[in-house]
Amino acid sequence: MNVDRPGDASFDDCEHVLERVYEFLDNELDAATSDAIRQHLAMCEPCLDRFDTEQAVKALVHRSCGGEAAPSHLRAKIVTQLTVIRKTQ
Ligand SMILES: [Zn+2]
Fold first, then answer.
1. Residues 6+ apart with CB under 8 A from 68
2. Residue 6 pLDDT more than 60?
3. Which of 11, 17, 20, 73 has an alpha carbon 20 to 30 Å from 33's alpha carbon atom?
């Protein structure tokens, strides 16, 4: 399997995007990969729909805090990211 070659991966594929979208929100990805995901979400309404804010917050909190309630700064960061994406549509 072709593991972790950011910039080289195809983000035309919705599954690839959704797989990495939490890393994207958590700023774990390099700039090229983040841009590719942002562009895909801006153009792909189904992905944006599937990727709703509450779900993103929950998944990210679970990943990074082990299931505690979302810290407000984290929630704010996610909402901001999503707002930016939706505005670029
Ligand atoms: Zn998509």
1. 61
2. no
3. 73
User: Could you tell me the distance, in angstroms and rounded to a whole number, from the CA of residue 55 to the centre of ligand 1?
Assistant: 16
Residues 6+ apart with CB under 8 A from 48: 41, 85, 86, 89
What's the DSSP call for residue 37? H
CA of 32 to the centre of ligand 1 (A): 17
Q: Please report, for the chain, the start and end positions of each structural domain, with discontinuous segments joined by +.
A: 14-87
Q: How far is the CA of 44 from the centre of ligand 1 (A)?
A: 5
What's the gap in Å between 64 CA and the centre of ligand 1? 25
Distance CA 60, CA 22 (A): 6
Q: What is the pLDDT of residues 25-75, one digit of tens each?
A: 778 899 999 899 888 888 888 888 777 666 677 776 776 666 556 677 777
User: How far does residue 52's CA lie from ligand 1's centre (Å)?
Assistant: 13
